[in-house]
Amino acid sequence: MRNKSHSKRIENAQIMLSGITDNKENLANRGINDQYIEEFKTLAETCVNQNSRQEKIKAELKDLTQELKDNMDKLDAEVQFCKRCVKINMPKTLWKAFGFIYRYRKAKPKNSPVNPPDDTTDDNTTEHTAPQNVEVKKGNENGKKETKEKPVTETAPVNDQKATENTESKEITETTG
C-alpha cells in the first residue's frame, strides 16, 4: 500500500469513508460510530489539504530549480570569460589573486624512464601506422594458439598541408605481403 501515490491513497480513504458512512449501522459493533466517522473525515480532509500544499511546493521548487540552473549556467559562462581575460592580460605571477593556482614545474630530464623520447621528427611530422588486423584462434588440436595476420599499413604525415590535400583527393595505401 505504501507504493501508491498520496493522491491515490487519499482517494482510497475517501471511498472507504463513503462506504462506512453508508453502512455505519452494520459496523457499529466494531466501534465505527458517528464520532469515529467524523474523526476519519477530518483526518482525510487534513491529508487532502497537506497533499495539495505539498504539490504546490513541489511545483515551486521545480521552477526555482530551473531558474537556479539557468543562473548557474550564466555564472559559469561569465567566470570562463573572465578566466580567459585574466590569462591573456595578466602575468602568471598575479593569477593567484583571481583564484588560479599556478605551479612552477621543474624540467624533467629528457630520455629518462619517466619522460621517454618523442617520436616526432624535426619537421614536426609523425608517421602513423594502422594496426594490423590479427585473428587469433583459441587453439588447434595440439592446444597451441594460431595467429593469422592480415597486414595493412597506412602511413600519412601529420601537420603536412600538401599530404592532407592529396589524401582527400585520392587514397594512399600500401600493402605488404
Please sum up the structure shown:
This protein has 177 residues and is mostly helical.
End-to-end C-alpha gap: 72 Å
Can you summarize the main beta sheet?
Answer: 2 strands, antiparallel
Give the beta-strand count. Answer: 2
Question: Strand order within the widest sheet?
Answer: 1-2
Strand content: 5-15%
Q: How much helix is in the residues?
A: 40-55%
* Number of structurally distinct domains: 2
Shape: rod-shaped
Structure description:
By secondary structure, this protein is mainly alpha-helical. The protein folds into two domains: 6-89; 123-177, no CATH class. The protein is 49% helix and 6% strand. It is built from four helices and two strands. It has a two-stranded antiparallel sheet with strand order 1-2. Strand 1 (133-137) and strand 2 (146-150) form a beta hairpin. The protein is rod-shaped. The model is unreliable at 121-131 and 162-177 (pLDDT under 50).
Task: Indicate the topology.
Elements: H1 6-22, H2 24-27, H3 34-89, E1 133-137, E2 146-150, H4 161-169
Antiparallel strand pairs: 1-2
Helix pairs in contact: 1-3
